[in-house]
Amino acid sequence: MDFTPTEHQTLLRETLRKLLERECPAALVRAHVDDPGVHEPLWTHLREYVALGTGPATDCCLALEETGHAAAPGPFLATVGLYTPLTGDETPGTVAIAGSAGEWLPNDEPVKTFVLEADRVERIAVVCPGPAVAVIERPGPERLRPVATVDFSRRVFELDTTGLALEARPLERGAFDRWRARAYASIAAEMVGTARRILGMALDHARHRHQFGVPIGSFQAIQHKLADMSLALERATAAVHYAAMTVDAGHPDLLRAAHAAKAAAGDAARRILKDGIQIHGGIGYTWEHDLHLYLRRATADEYLLGTTGWHLDRLADLLFA
After folding, report:
1. Residue 85 lies in a domain
2. Cβ(260)–Cβ(306) under 8 Å?
């Protein structure tokens, strides 16, 4: 299988990388803690890429790696990774599916949890048992309850659908499974991007931080950590790209590949954020250093759309069914 990006994909990645370097520095992510409105100029640019949600999953995942690398605030993942692939609608939107247990599976509970960026989008796709989906206009604030999370760069809500007239259209099981697989691959792609940012920061610190008159990167213990971090990231990146390719091909292995990708991304993120903060030493624990901005995104994403353990359990179910 050829994982080499096409000329189009290389251009997409480079264009987004330059855009995010210019429009989403760490200062903007930090400013979002106190002023959620600072994302709006960035979203004006990223909104031009919403059509990626109806295109190949491979292209979408390449884009999400870059927004994950920047920990970009705003409804890009909610729209491009979740809403648009489910509905085919390129209007900014999000998806409400998880119930009180937090599992992203259809249920009849009226209160939906982990609804991303619900106050910033125009529409919400509510997934009902069947599976079926009902698209509603964003409701008033009385139905949206903000939930504080470790990640300041992403807003999360609970949505109360009690009493709403939901006109749900049925989804074919195969279509729903393809959407699930694509959603898992999308969040895993974002995690890979964030993990790459943390690894890059650790490498830079190891080059420039001196102890005993030499860079700490010359110490064998640091080198071993960096090597293990790099290998974990490469494994996760390959798993994400393979999962996206199975979705595009409609391959029967797509759910297994997607579960494996989310689990690999979660494992890589945990290792990289743990070792990354150790390599930084005391400065890595401070509010003033930017490292925690990306540690927060990686930590929150590990729980979003299922933890590593949950995906490994689902993978085992498929393998031993």
Report:
1. no
2. no
Domain range spanning residue 316? 173-320
Q: Quote the pLDDT of residue 1.
A: 61
Number of domains in the chain: 1
pTM comes to 0.93
Strand partners, 112: 159
Kindly report the CATH number assigned to the domain that includes residue 187. Answer: 1.20.140.10
What's the rounded Cα separation, in Å, for the pair 42 and 31?
A: 13
Beta strands in the chain, from DSSP E residues, in sequence order: 93-96, 111-116, 123-128, 132-137, 144-147, 156-160, 169-170, 210-211, 214-215
Per-residue pLDDT of 225-258, as tens digits, reads 999 999 999 999 999 999 999 999 999 999 999 9
Place of tokens 């605030």: 73
- β partners of residue 95: 125
Contacts of 87 (CB under 8 A, 6+ apart): 93, 123, 125, 133, 135
| Residue 166 included in any domain | no
Phi, psi of 160 (to 5 degrees): -100, 110
